[in-house]
Write a structure and sequence with these properties.
By secondary structure, the chain is mainly α. The chain has seven helices and four strands, in the order H-H-E-E-H-H-H-H-E-E-H. A two-stranded antiparallel ribbon has the order 1-2. It holds the Pfam family MerR_1.
């Protein structure tokens, strides 16, 4: 495995504080402790292709080297920046092969920023809809509401709150 240090800054820290180059081979429990995760997480990373299958000892135990620590630190750093495991899985082979430079990093970060901006916009729209729905409620407190009356319906291509309409009708 090649080095995975791409200068990504995050709050993920090396748990041991040791220089990964000087770390001896370790089993899965030791690796999990070194990076502050669980053995189940490491097995999952291996299963979905985020972590290369390690060498196996005669007893069948996994044996990891220092590169695994850096690899997992990269995965966790990328997650901290909002990248999904699927997105990280796309990046890792390029990193390992030395084909992931600054232009690729900037492109990925820019795309992630655009994605976050779109999500923020969608959340703002949702918030407006929630506020409008809350402001349109006119039913008396303590009156049970049925599932049917609380269900949104699509009418004439426009989403309207069936509950809000019924509640307004009740208040007339």
């Amino acid at each position: 495995m090649g080095t995975l240090n791409v200068g990504v800054h995050s709050n993920v820290k090396e748990s041991r504080g040791d220089d990964p180059e000087r770390c001896p081979r370790m089993n899965i429990s030791e690796l999990a402790k070194a990076v502050g995760t669980t053995t189940d997480t490491l097995r999952y990373y291996e299963k979905v292709g985020l972590l290369e299958a390690p060498t196996r000892l005669g007893n069948g135990y996994r044996s990891y080297g220092a590169e695994a620590i850096r690899h997992i630190q990269f995965i966790r750093s990328a997650q901290t920046l909002g990248f999904s495991l699927a997105e990280i899985r796309e990046i890792i082979p390029q990193l390992i092969d030395g084909r992931f430079g600054r232009a690729e990093i900037e492109q990925r970060l820019s795309a992630k920023i655009d994605q976050i901006d779109a999500h923020i916009s969608a959340l703002r729209s949702l918030r407006k809809e929630l506020v409008a729905t809350a402001n349109s409620l006119s039913c008396p407190l303590g009156v049970p509401v049925s599932v049917e009356s609380a269900t949104k319906v699509v009418a004439a291509g426009q989403e309207t709150s069936h509950m809000a309409r019924k509640m307004q009708a009740l208040s007339r």
